[in-house]
Design brief:
about 375 residues, mainly alpha, 10 helices
Length: about 375
């Protein structure tokens, strides 16, 4: 029996040299999770890089399905579904080819005038650089042009080989587009049936969660596609109208370039408009080029503060910093294709995560991810 006068035993003293601070343990816990996520992302991009053509074709087919499926559904109300899908796909291909043919005709018709305007524009730029505050030597531009010509002449073999490899790339591009068109026909016609069949082939314990993930992924990709398409169309119309009013040559091709560049968030539109600034500077002078710079700012404000929040926020709930990091990371990993795919891929992954965390995700029965299951 212990003596009541004795003090209670003191708790054991932990050795301060071996204890880990709370902040360090929390940072380590988050750190290894970040490393795991980075390894998974790197592995996904590595696999996609090995099968890049197939992955791009399937991605384009999904985008085409999201765009063309409503039209095919409308036609299928009065026509057989197979005929409606065929007319939709063939009509869209004819429309795209017609637009490119029109652009080629415009470029060919303005080529002579554009060449003369560029020559006079380079002369004006040279005179402008000779004045304060630049004070460039009168022979600097001439020397630069001669050095550039010598550089091209000395690397002529490399230029030829690059052109030949570019021809090979053209074949790859047409192959990818053909595969995408082929897949889109089946996706539009009966993609929901393929998804139901795929879920039914999985083990029973995975079917519900896979169905939930598929519906969330398709809903996000569908919303992203329609949102970007609307933003790109509005930007292209604004650019085309403004450049036409300013008298800048190649307004239609530049508007088309702006349309496709808008599919790369944050950086695509400024790059396309920078090309318009260069053409305006060389053909119309600094005043018109300055107006085009103001146009870049105005369109950027409209896109950033009106179109993106209203159109994209309900489909892609990503912070602008996440969007910027996704675009840059995708571009570094897989070039232009990576920049195009990065944002929808991250948005789909995030929406799938949110859907799987929602109550009832375990017990859902397999169903088609699309808007209908016919």
């Amino acid at each position: 029996m212990s003596n009541p006068a004795e003090p209670p035993p003191s708790p054991p003293v932990r050795a301060t040299g071996t204890s880990v601070p709370e902040g360090l343990r929390v940072a380590a816990a988050y750190g290894w999770r970040v490393v795991v996520v980075a390894v998974v992302v790197l592995g996904v991009f590595s696999v996609l890089g090995r099968f890049q053509q197939i992955a791009v074709a399937v991605f384009l087919a999904l985008i085409a399905t999201a765009v063309l499926r409503p039209t095919a559904g409308l036609l299928a109300r009065t026509l057989p579904r197979a005929l409606a899908v065929g007319l939709t796909v063939i009509g869209s291909i004819a429309l795209v080819l017609g637009v490119f043919a029109l652009v080629g005709d415009v470029v060919a018709g303005q080529w002579t005038t554009l060449t003369q305007e560029f020559r006079s524009g380079l002369t004006r730029i040279g005179h402008l650089l000779e004045q304060p505050p630049f004070r460039l030597s009168p022979h600097a531009l001439t020397d630069f042009q001669s050095e550039l010509g010598q550089l091209i002449s000395s690397h002529r073999s490399k230029v030829v080989s690059t052109a030949l490899s570019g021809a090979g790339r053209v074949v790859e591009v047409f192959t990818v587009l053909a595969l995408a068109a082929f897949c889109s026909v089946f996706f539009i016609h009966s993609g929901e049936r393929y998804w139901v069949w795929f879920c039914a082939e999985l083990p029973a314990r995975f079917r519900g969660r896979t169905s939930v993930a598929g519906r969330a992924a398709w809903r996000t990709l569908n919303g992203y596609t329609h949102g970007v398409l609307l933003v790109a169309t509005v930007n292209a119309v604004l650019v085309g109208v403004a450049l036409t009013l300013l008298g800048v040559p190649l307004a239609l091709p530049l508007a088309l370039l702006e349309f496709f560049a808008a599919f790369v968030p944050l950086i695509g539109s400024p790059i396309a408009l920078a090309v318009a600034v260069v053409i305006a500077l060389a053909s119309k002078g600094p005043l018109v080029a300055g107006i085009v710079v103001v146009l870049i700012v105005v369109i950027g404000q409209i896109e950033g503060h009106l179109l993106q929040p209203l159109v994209m926020s309900w489909a892609v709930r990503l912070h602008p910093v996440v969007v910027a990091l996704s675009v840059i990371g995708g571009a570094i990993t897989a070039g232009v294709i990576g920049a195009l795919v990065a944002v929808p891929l991250v948005a789909v992954v995030w929406s799938v995560r949110q859907a799987l965390r929602a109550p009832g995700a375990e017990g859902d029965t397999p169903s088609a991810p699309g808007p209908d299951t016919s």
